[in-house]
Amino acid sequence: MSTPSIKLNDGNKMPQVGFGLWKVDNATCADQVYEAIKVGYRLFDGACDYGNEVESGQGIARAIKEGIVKREDLFITSKLWNSFHDAEQVEPITRKQLADWGIDYFDLYLIHFPVAIKYVAPEVRYPPGWYVDDAGTKIEYSKASLESTWKAIEQLKKKGLAKSVGISNYTGALLLDLFTYAEITPAVLQIEHHPYFTQENLVKLAKERGIAITAYSSFGPSSFIECDMKVAADTQQLLSHSLITGIAEKHGKTAAQVLLRWSTQRGLAVIPKSNHPKRLAQNLDVVNFDLGDDEIQKISDLNINLKFNVPTNYGIPCYIFA
Ligand code: NAD
């Protein structure tokens, strides 16, 4: 099954549906990536912080070796972790991440979070996570500004280490600030986006500036229940919400497909992950049916501005979304 592509503002094309690699177990990751390629996935959304870039690369190498795909058929995204924001760390860590994947360029490289924390050398701890110490008791900030980090990210594109560059978890204010100094406009903004957190105005701002949006955590609370997050457990699950299941039944689709189609029909890209072969295929099939305008509106009306992916919800005292 093939999926349509979104044309990015730098001329590159990004598949509208991809496979997210957060919380994919190291033990099964290579096989999952390989199986996902066989099912038809071409976009893989990774990050230093997911700790599975080596295994993801192994899955890709196997698929390429067996002639299922060529490197240029794939769209590989990775992200700069918070501890590598100091300008002089950006290229070395990108090169390490490329080596881990076993590739020589990323299709897309994003600033993961708009916060610079103190550098931890890869030999000391990798991925470093949020804390400066092994015991996980102390967050220390770096003095790198987001402007200085973005300038270093622009160099990655100029040097061909990333074909497209972008940001993640930026708010409107940070984007507007970025426009004052950016030589290269980000191609993609990756954000949490689901019916409880529709971010209409941020979507509008990105669209006005020609920035494509990738939605993450499209099923809302489900992803965060796995992380033992109380607010996620206390919230009505979207996958079993009567509005969503009712619409799904009407279209002969699953609730997951309706949630993904709600995003893709609004022009966003999605990157769900699943460990189940049936769901893997199902999540890819989210562009070949249409929801009615009234259905899209009713789903959007579920918005309660509820963001789950906030460090403090995991007990991490970093107040970036304060
Ligand atoms: P997700 O939307 O992929 O949801 C995952 C949960 O939904 C899992 O519990 C999974 O088993 C379940 N699921 C998947 N398909 C299903 C189906 N068809 N039916 C029923 N249940 C199904 O959530 P996510 O992992 O939070 O987000 C997806 C990807 O987005 C991540 O893997 C990662 O690549 C990216 N992401 C980025 C950031 C960021 O800060 N930039 C943050 C979170 C996630």
TrEMBL record:
Domain NADP-dependent oxidoreductase, chain residue ranges per copy: 18-303
Database matches in PROSITE patterns: ALDOKETO_REDUCTASE_2, ALDOKETO_REDUCTASE_3
Chain positions of site Lowers pKa of active site Tyr: K79
Matching PANTHER family: ALDO/KETO REDUCTASE
Family per record: Belongs to the aldo/keto reductase family.
InterPro entries per UniProt: AKR, Aldo/ket_reductase_CS, NAD(P)_OxRdtase_dom_sf, NADP_OxRdtase_dom
The organism of origin for this protein: Karstenula rhodostoma CBS 690.94
Molecular function GO labels: oxidoreductase activity
Entry annotation: catalytic residues: Y50
Highest taxon, organism lineage: Eukaryota
UniProt-annotated binding residues for substrate: H112
Protein name (Swiss-Prot/TrEMBL): Aldo/keto reductase
Entry keyword set: Oxidoreductase
